[in-house]
Specification:
With 336 residues, the protein is α/β, with parallel strands linked by helices. It has two domains: 87 residues, Rossmann fold (3-Layer(aba) Sandwich), CATH 3.40.50; 233 residues, Mur-like, catalytic domain (UDP-N-acetylmuramoyl-L-alanine:D-glutamate ligase), CATH 3.40.1190.10. It has 14 helices and nine strands. A five-stranded parallel β-sheet has the order 6-7-5-8-9, with helices on both faces. A four-stranded parallel β-sheet has the order 2-1-3-4, with helices on both faces. β8, α9 and β9 form a beta-alpha-beta unit. α2 runs parallel beside α7 and α10 crosses α14. It is globular, with a radius of gyration of 20 Å.
Length: 336
């Protein structure tokens, strides 16, 4: 399926395009820009030495600057780009402009990568063409490049996208059919000055999500209330202190913290019109991904990184007994 370039981008792509960051996002963007027939692209990355620094001269040559999720909005290179009049957008935003399929966004302080993998697995298990998208593994731009932007029939391809706060805070073009925001921790600054700023960045996803498609877990509800941010109707899902579910015995979702992710996934799954039994069946056969989604070749670096994240996550005490969860339970049990 050919890619259709939005009108406002055409003159920008006729000039040199700068890519900030040489990691997975940078490689995905390079592949997508190549598919689009862009004549000149340049990747800039501080890790590669000063010869690859983005400076005033580089900014003057470019019309478009696309940055990876590692770049905060006030990064000096982006400040330089904006001062030169460049159009700046994140990898997720840029890729979204060319995607015709559906999008399910997943946000949260803990466990979002695992939930992304599980939702994509559950959808594939039920006959959908679904791909798990992660900025550090298989970025959105790579998926768009490999499948030509998805299908004209919106239901034929689904991108399940992990969205971290640094990405969420810069979104302008990204749109999600559904967003699952599992949890929030005050310890999760993710490059922001304070927890409130980080939370507000994630809150951008509310406006990016189709009406009725946003669901949030207990701790998200608590912090939204604290900072006077009204959740959309039907978005509230009680994920804290849920009783054990015998149908999840011996699965990764049997206990907290992953129990919370399944509760939220089940709420969205049912609202989307799917049968609960299908999600439970997927949970019983789900195994944590160890292979790069774009190939059959297992990479040691990807496996080590994912396993390290999983180990750290599963060893973290985010059970319903901690203070944040107890606060959430107290608020959720108030009479209204």
């Amino acid at each position: 399926m050919s890619l259709t370039t939005p009108v406002f981008l055409r003159p920008l792509l006729a000039r040199p395009v700068a890519i900030l960051g040489a990691g997975a996002c940078g490689r995905g963007l390079t592949a997508l820009l190549d598919k689009l027939g862009v004549i000149e692209t340049q990747v800039y990355d501080q890790a590669h030495g000063t010869a690859f620094d983005f400076n005033v001269d580089a900014a003057a040559r470019c019309g478009l600057v696309i940055f990876s999720s590692d770049f905060s909005s006030d990064h000096p290179w982006l400040v330089t780009a904006r001062a030169a009049g460049c159009e700046c957008m994140g990898e997720l935003d840029f890729a979204a402009l060319f995607w015709r399929g559906q999008v399910i966004a997943v946000a949260g302080s803990e466990g979002r990568e695992i939930l992304v993998e599980f939702l994509a697995f559950a959808l594939r298990s039920n006959g959908f063409e679904a791909s798990a998208v992660c900025d550090r593994g298989y970025p959105f731009a790579q998926l768009v490049a490999e499948c030509g932007g998805g299908s004209l029939a919106a239901a034929e391809k689904i991108a399940v996208c992990e969205v971290n706060p640094s990405q969420a805070g810069t979104l302008r073009h990204f749109r999600a059919d559904a967003t699952l925001w599992t949890n929030y921790s005050e310890a999760d600054f993710d490059g922001y000055l304070n927890p409130a700023a980080c939370f507000a960045a994630n809150w951008t996803l509310v406006a990016c999500t189709a009406p009725g498609g946003f669901v949030a877990g207990s701790s998200v509800q608590v912090f939204a209330s604290r900072w006077h941010l009204p959740l959309p109707a039907r978005a509230v899902v009680a994920t804290a202190a849920q009783p054990a579910d015998p149908l999840l015995a011996e699965t990764v979702f049997a206990t907290y913290p992953m129990r919370e992710s399944f509760v939220l996934a089940a709420a969205w799954w049912g609202a989307a019109g799917f049968q609960p039994s299908e999600l439970y069946a997927a949970a019983r056969t789900f195994r944590l991904a160890r292979k790069c989604p774009s190939s059959d070749v297992e990479t040691a670096e990807t496996a080590r990184g994912l396993n390290s994240k999983i180990a750290d996550f599963l060893s973290t005490d985010v059970s319903p007994r901690n203070s944040t969860e107890l606060h959430a339970i107290t608020l959720l049990n108030r009479p209204y």
